[in-house]
Amino acid sequence: MKLIDKIHENLERDSFFYSFEYFPPKTDAGCVNLYERMERMKSLNPCFVGTTWGVEGSTAAETLEICAATQNLLGLESLMHITCTNTPLELLRDTLRKAREAGIQNLFVLRGGRANADSHFQHAADFISWIRKEHGDFFGICVAGYPEGHDETPYEEDIANLKKKIDAGADLVISQLFYDVDVFIGFMQDCRKIGIKCPIVPGIMPINTFHQFTRMKRLFCKKQTPALTQLTERISEVSNDDDAVKDVGVRETTAIIKKLMRKGVRGFHFFTQNLEKSVTRILTDPPPEGLGLLAEESQTELPFQVPEARRELPWRKSANMRRCGEEDVRPAFWSNRPKSYMAKTMSWDDFPNGRWGDSRSPAFGEEDHSHSHVTGHTKQWLDTSTGPWSSDVTLQDLCKLFIDSLHEDGPKLPWFETGLASESDRILGDVLTPMNCRGLLSINSQPGVNAERSDTKDVGWGPKGGYVYQKAYVEFFCSPEAQAKVLEVISQPKYDQLTWMASGIETAGTARFEANHEGVTAVTWGVFPGKEIIQPTVVDTVSFLEWKKEAFALWLAPYKPGEERFCPPFIQEIYNTWWLIHIVDNDFVENKQLKAAMAEVFEKQNEISQHPQKTKK
Fold first, then answer.
1. d(Cα 518, Cα 36) in Å, to the nearest integer?
2. Alpha-helical regions (H) of 143-224
3. Which residues pair with 109 in a beta bridge?
4. CB-CB contact of 470 with 459 (8 Å)
5. Digit-coded pLDDT (tens) for 329-363
6. pLDDT, tens digit, for every residue of 310-332?
7. Is there a catalytic annotation at residue 21?
8. From the candidates 9, 12, 21, 289, which is the catalytic residue?
9. Residues with Cβ < 8 Å from 198, sequence gap 6 or more?
């Protein structure tokens, strides 16, 4: 979706908006850390996120990769920076082609360094005109504005150059940083005077260190205004205390934003410097230190509505317009690994419709563990030279590990790209914990829900005024002995509302699959005013068998070719002989059969590890 359209939607709702900017790290480890940080900051509900571009295209591949992952895997609208001077035309042409293929629809067009005589483009306006000629109206184009003028041109000439970029086809301006509100307001008024009518979003640089503040001030603040002098004095008073500098920086940046709001400014673009704490504090700390976005509405003290963070669907949507326009249903098995699912299905030409019919079998892509869609703890898991397990690991060790992973401060396992969903608290004590204590190692679950309001905190999704429904399900690894006990229990006639599938890795060409139902089962749906019933999550055989391969592969993923000797015999046994079982309770009204069946299993299966004494997640 074009940013200008998203911004207009916010303006129509009388809501303010904000966005984050990152730069490509220099190492793979830095990229993993950045994705982790972006994942956490996504919860702040930014309107979009931008990724910078190195001089003369030096980070072209990295910028494109981050933007594609942001758009398709994190579900955030991406703004890809791109500079044009002294950059081969073929690189620019190829980058824009790949951006379109990845669903990236927004560009931040910058000139870059001073153009050489042989540079194909001399100015950003020339590049914008070329983009419009080559790609029509596909891309939304943002350009930079300089509240105190660019270093190379006088202020009035610089604003005239900005007008040329708008006339060439740009539809949004993001400003360079400033520390005096009056400087930005004056710049915006001067832009309006010469006919620049598009939104102008102020760039906000949080103050993290005294050195960073003085450097930014030297580079971008030409006028020593009274407001800047006062800010400099406040920061200088605590210059030897980094924590105090951050505290003052949060308070002063919040004050700048509030002052801008009082003057009618509705959007803010944060230059994060790939850091999260100061931005998060500015947005969420209670007033007056921060904006208090997580506080009660009466405490925010803001003149505009707070951006609404609602889940459209119970799973993470891609921001790729082709995908989000067509995709309205997913299999439940990747609930805890949404980025993996989106990566495996990125090449699909179309997506199953809202009833997930049997007319086509999804052609899933291969699992890859590139840093663009694994989390930090999974990357660490994969990169450990000797694997994550001790050579003498036991089932008791695994039980304790999986029990601990159910809690917020516990270890992070690769079957969970994100933490355990808060809805899991509803079945933590009577289902999940006793399961894992008995060697039934859970990797996916959801509680039953019968007509709860769509704004319910832990299970709600979709538009306001609706009601949501869920069938309870659990999914877990277990030994062959435990599998026999589980199937013996759940196959009894009294558990006629349970449908289940069980599968393991094929051995000697023999398939290992059992089920009492091989159709498609809806496990999540919602009813909303003025809409057809939305059925976004299903369980089906084809997807389960595909997911089974990925789920088992994660046990062995750390052991690269030639390093199999590091894999403990017990982990090899799990891979070769254990089962993955998925059970659904179809009676979402009574919601009793799954819990009753598991209680019966618990009586047959002895505890291997004791219940931990921990607070729920």
1. 37
2. 155-168, 181-193, 210-220
3. 82, 143
4. yes
5. 778 887 878 777 777 676 554 444 443 443 233 44
6. 677 776 777 776 666 667 777 88
7. yes
8. 21
9. 4, 166, 170, 171, 172, 173
